[in-house]
Write a structure and sequence with these properties.
By secondary structure, this protein is an alpha+beta fold. Helices cover about 30% and strands about 15% of the residues. It has one domain. The two termini are about 25 Å apart. It binds zinc ion (ZN). This is DNA primase/polymerase bifunctional N-terminal domain-containing protein.
C-alpha cells in the first residue's frame, strides 16, 4: 500500500466526465431533478434562492448585490425543517418556485467530502485504478468537487486523515455533515455555470461508499494538490 507515499510522481489521468453532465442542456428541469432525488434516491431536498434577471444581469433572489452564492443558498432559516424526502412535497415546492435552486442537506442520507476540483479529479482517477465503485460526485462552478458518502462519515474524517499520516489542517478537505448542505445539479450559481455530476448517481452506486473507503485516495489527492 503506497497510497500515501510522499513524492509519487505518476501522472494521474483526468477521467472523462461520466455520463452527460449537462442536465440543463438536456432539458431536465429543476423540478424534475428535485423530484427524482427524493423519489429515486430518497434524498431530502429543499428549495433555495433563485436567479432573477435585473437590468440585464442576474441577481440572487435574496437581494444582496454582494451575495457569495447567487441563486444557490437557503432562502429561509428554517430550511432544516422544510427539507423533505417526499417526491410529492418536492413537486409542490418547485411548482411554486420552478427556478429555485435544489439544495440537499448533508448529515441525513449522506455526508459530503468537499475538495478542490483538481484534487477531486485526481482522486477519481485513483479510485478507478483501485477498482472502487464510484459514488455520486458533483462538480460546482466554483471548482469544488463533492463526494457523497454514508452519513456519519464527516465526523470521522479528521481521525481518518490523521491515521493516514496527514495533518487535517494542512488539507483543503471540508467534511460536511449535519447542519450543512450542498447544491445539486442542475442548480446554477450566478453567472458561473451549473452544478454538474462528475459521477452520476446510478443503480450501481445506490449504496454510498463509507468515508473509510475513499478517504485514502481523497486525502492523498488533496495533499498532492496542496503542494503545487
Ligand atoms: Zn443570495
Amino acid at each position: 500500500m503506497d497510497e500515501m507515499t510522499i513524492g509519487v510522481t505518476s501522472t494521474a489521468q483526468i477521467p472523462k466526465q461520466r455520463g452527460a453532465a449537462h442536465d440543463t442542456a438536456r432539458g431536465t428541469s429543476l423540478l424534475e431533478a428535485a423530484v427524482s432525488y427524493a423519489e429515486e434516491r430518497h434524498w431530502d431536498v429543499f428549495p433555495g434562492t433563485w436567479l432573477e434577471a435585473v437590468k440585464g444581469t442576474q441577481r440572487c433572489s435574496c437581494g444582496d448585490p454582494a451575495c457569495e452564492a447567487p441563486g444557490a443558498h437557503p432562502a429561509r432559516e428554517d430550511w432544516p425543517t422544510q427539507a423533505t424526502g417526499s417526491a410529492s412535497a418536492a413537486r409542490r415546492l418547485w411548482s411554486k418556485q420552478p427556478t429555485a435552486s435544489i439544495l440537499l442537506p448533508t448529515g441525513r442520507s449522506f455526508d459530503v467530502l468537499d475538495v478542490p476540483e483538481t484534487a477531486g479529479f485526481l482522486a477519481l482517477a485513483r479510485m478507478e485504478r483501485m477498482g472502487l465503485t464510484l459514488g455520486p460526485v458533483t462538480r460546482t462552478p466554483d471548482r469544488r468537487m463533492h463526494f457523497l458518502v454514508q452519513p456519519g462519515g464527516a465526523a470521522k474524517v479528521t481521525d481518518l486523515v490523521r491515521k493516514l499520516g496527514w495533518s487535517p489542517l494542512a488539507l483543503d478537505l471540508v467534511a460536511r455533515g449535519e447542519g450543512s448542505y450542498v447544491a445539486a445539479p442542475p442548480t446554477r450559481v450566478g453567472g458561473r455555470g451549473a452544478v454538474q455530476w462528475a459521477c452520476r448517481p446510478t443503480v450501481s452506486n445506490r449504496w454510498l461508499p463509507e468515508a473509510e473507503e475513499i478517504i485514502s485516495p481523497v486525502a492523498y489527492a488533496c495533499g498532492r494538490d496542496g503542494r503545487r
